């Protein structure tokens, strides 16, 4: 029942921030050490965000010492750095007791605690949210402190600037804490780096202070990892009657030497051995979706094509360090700035080079307008490699809406490979055409290496293996995982539709004429996706039933991918059962 | 054949920017005067953007005098201020000859001229596009000048900041021209206003210079409407080998006194009388979609509800000056910052007030992520009033994708009123519920004032007028415009589905069982919209045909709304004809 690994920890006495206020600086320092130990122990066991949390321990303790949460409100941006906050607000059990490691979610979560205000998994939004909270407080006649805490990495996102612009003219209390640990997910980029470096180097006295320029009161605290200093810094901004920006210097990864030596690889960690920092699991050998894509790009560059590999602060998700190190002229990281990543690509292709943008579906949501206005309406042939699938994890990080964003826009061709060979052929074709923006859905699941390919993916023909009665159109990752085994058991036809949004209407007509049922499977939300286009196209025929499978219209939070696939009937067993019921109709 | 109204104008001799370079300053000044005359004459006749173009005449002349377009490249942000640019690059005929007024589009347009690089109708993108162009130039080994010209209003958009952040570290030539005319579409807002005012007041010498802080070289030119000064200013930044920001002070509306007296109403103008600035057409009397919405909000405020009316720099589109003037505490304009507008609303509702965000579908594209992550995933009941429809105009301003963005996200309820009474009931209900984010589609067409309403719009029941064989589900504006007259002629059933994304499956089942054909009509793109959801839901029945009507997946450019409705068969005549064909099946 009680698996508390550290019953002796002072932390056990902290049930809420109120309990903090009784402690001495020495005790608070002891608490910081305990929190650090717990972050490392849990991350080593199950993985998680590491360096950001190690860096913000003292700041968090000081915040809760000085302010009166939950009445005073703070928005942590991004909330993957809230392990210390969670431990101090009644949720330490999820670090003390390994059996309860999964009982607390990794981001702020209003359903979990009154000390959390938003589920916040996309960066840079905190200041905008805080400006709204402050305005509402003013209208209500409230007087609580409203605070946004934002990292220097998050500051590169445009909505952070939109927030600053509006926060600067707030007439009452509003505090922006800039947690400057001198890193984004990877190295931070852009003019912001110099700007913050100058402020740090001058102890906040640098001549050109953009925050003062906008009208903020400004303070600098060099000792962000010293509890006494941070308490003073927070006390000085508590209950102010105007917008103020408190710039705090902290050390990302503090207290764990490997993280200090190699910050880029310790932002987020998979399970590792605490004694020597070695990973617990080896990466599988052989080609992967990433390695295939990178090989195509490197080959193109080696053959003289002017290619730019572009990403928005997530090189690790695609193994892009390979390009960064070996082809630095062909590599661009624009920071946490998805809008810029797409507009930048639009500018680049217009001026004669071939951009390939690496995107994560959940963050790509920030650039929907750029996909439409800057790229598609301008008919610019950028190439995009999109990591998207039905996956477990936080409701702030679902990767389901890729089709909503891409498939419904004019001009875009969205391709979904079923094998690594197909991925290679699609990407190679995309790099060599100049007619359309092309997105390729990164295979999210285990798929075969080899398979048939086409020469031209502009209007791809469906790849059909004939069976009878039922035709299963299984897009991308769903083809080998669900479509092929289900069809085999049913004796049904199985189809690789190749594209998520360009219908092969000729083959569809033939399939409709020769089958009783068409089933569509896709690794994303049904609404606005592939299957609904098929249903709409075949709607005016009365000789065919169409059934669409994919994610339901819901946010799921920390539900496993396996459970979700089962819930959405995206398993061979479910499809076989459902198909048999449909055949009875 | 030759309807040139000003054959004597010097402008007739300017076929390309090359011809400018031969002129004296006096002749260039004469040219400026002619261009201003032409802007006023054409705008008075057919309407258009006015003040921004009047303010940028001298700057544009100087640009083309100094730089060598189209090899040197400039991106005008936003491109509604390019009338002078168009006149100097071979397109003066569209101002000189009233018969050719419509022959040139109102935004930059690469299909129209090699001097235009992007169709740019959404603000703030220029610096991001330019960073991509500059990087591509570097990779190609080119050496042309790359320039982004951006207004002070456009500077409030987050992607402008993302652009600045990346532009500041460009290693070669990149010039950002900040055209500071001290206005956005309405009054500019935020900390940026003070920042720029300080720089202007100090002739560019203010202590806190954010551009220098980021690493830009910085220049200030106070006399942006003086050709000789602007020539010098541009010559000084031509061929520089590093990023530079040239801050130029210009006068919005220069040369037209009414525009100087009332800048807010002269940003864009409908046809007017040049002699006294009076409008040529009176606004119709009686309630409108805007007035109904504003009345609901004012009533709620008067009754003590804490309501915030929020918009992103387009108060004029919704008549919000009424709220701004009479309820200033309840009014927020966040600038051209759609992301902020939605996040701000999320923060406000979380802290106890009721936000109503006024959005234009085309600009709302910037905030897709906020609709999902900040609002829907956080289950926050913000209210949104969305101007969206199939309309003519520039391909950069299509309002078709509202359903793509809203209808496919979990938690959102998207309602489409068919009468003004229904609009009022929906908005009143939305303001008083706390369960879901609710969007209401602003009726774009003439609709009746009166009609039946529901008490609860959470799961609205379809409103059915029974006929036979065919059921026409006509959403929102399509109901009275197309659905009712077509159904009358066909003797068909006509249905008001009330919601764009919440299906009344019980009624749908009944309709499917009692009809042979279901037709869906919607005032937006078919892909990702209402009809495809109906087709998908009814896909597994073989006793009903479904046919979806709406906009095709295409960008149209300056095609009239009337022509588009006909193209998409969204007229009673088309639907009657199509229905008769379907009945023969």
From TrEMBL, chains A, B:
Keywords: Isoprene biosynthesis, Magnesium, Metal-binding, Thiamine biosynthesis, Thiamine pyrophosphate, Transferase. Residues 284-449 form the Transketolase-like pyrimidine-binding domain. Its EC number is 2.2.1.7. InterPro entries: Dxylulose-5-P_synthase, THDP-binding, Transketo_C/PFOR_II, Transketolase-like_Pyr-bd, Transketolase_C, Transketolase_CS. SMART domains: Transket_pyr. One of its GO terms (molecular function) is 1-deoxy-D-xylulose-5-phosphate synthase activity. GO terms for biological process: isopentenyl diphosphate biosynthetic process, methylerythritol 4-phosphate pathway; terpenoid biosynthetic process; thiamine biosynthetic process. It comes from the Bacteria. Homodimer. This is 1-deoxy-D-xylulose-5-phosphate synthase. It comes from Ligilactobacillus hayakitensis DSM 18933 = JCM 14209.
